[in-house]
Specification:
alpha/beta, Rossmann fold, eight-stranded mixed β-sheet, three-stranded antiparallel β-sheet, 11 strands, about 30% helix, globular, binds glycinamide ribonucleotide
Length: about 220
């Protein structure tokens, strides 16, 4: 049965767009039931509206604690009975209660080759470290920030004259491939997080996840 997806955003929503496009193209057997943002001005909300998807805003600044905001989000999200929660540039740290509630059915995308460069400014940090390659990772979400088991990773090479902006653009292109791919695989039960580890086609993935072949 087609899976029900809720996407959480805080900004532009280009990853949301990539997933919507993959659904329209028939690549993903799923449906985005709602898009929720903690920022009213997030452009991703406009993308959702244009696609006829309910676009909701819940401002974290209207709540007096992380827990009360997260509980309000759960209430909102669960009306859509999602099989999968997709964090697509959702820039909020989640409470343990929220993460536990969606255990095994929540993805995040992070702009680095995790476990390297958790947190912010990943592109500049990769340049400053003199790395030859960089990339992005889709992972299942745990209570540890950017720390859950890795599902899919895509790499880009760092050229000596690349700025952080150049690198961000290159990484974004790969994000728009690996996120729809991970969602596609989750929606057909091909990709699962089990107590043994992350399985793809019933086979255990290495800790770095499935590596997207370089093109
Ligand atoms: C993406 O690059 C994503 O990897 C990053 O935010 C951007 C959102 O772009 N997420 C994080 O840094 C989470 N730690 P988008 O709004 O255009 O999809």
């Amino acid at each position: 049965m087609s899976k029900r997806i809720v996407v959480l955003i805080s900004g532009s929503g280009s990853n949301l767009q990539a997933i919507m496009d993959a659904i329209d193209a028939g690549q993903i057997d799923g449906r985005i039931e709602a898009v929720l943002s903690n920022k009213a001005e997030a452009y991703g909300l406009e993308r959702a509206r244009l696609a006829g998807i309910p676009a909701l805003t819940l401002k974290h600044t209207d709540f007096d604690s992380r827990e009360s905001f997260d509980q309000a989000m759960i209430k909102e999200i669960d009306q859509y009975q999602p099989d999968l929660i997709v964090l697509a540039g959702f820039m909020r740290i989640l409470s343990a209660g929220f993460v536990r509630h969606y255990h095994g059915r929540m993805f995040n995308i992070h702009p680095s080759l995790l476990p390297k460069y958790k947190g912010l400014n990943t592109h500049q940090r990769a340049i400053d470290a003199g790395d030859a390659e960089h990339g992005c990772t889709v992972h299942f979400v745990t209570e540890e920030l950017d720390g859950g088991p890795l599902a899919v990773q895509g790499k880009v090479s760092i050229n000596p004259d690349d700025s952080a902006e150049d690198l961000q653009q290159k990484v974004h292109k790969v994000e728009h491939v690996i996120y729809p791919l991970a969602v596609e695989w989750f929606c057909t039960d091909k990709l699962q997080w089990t107590p043994e580890g992350v399985l793809l086609d019933s086979k255990m993935l290495p800790v770095e996840g499935y590596q997207l072949p370089a093109n």
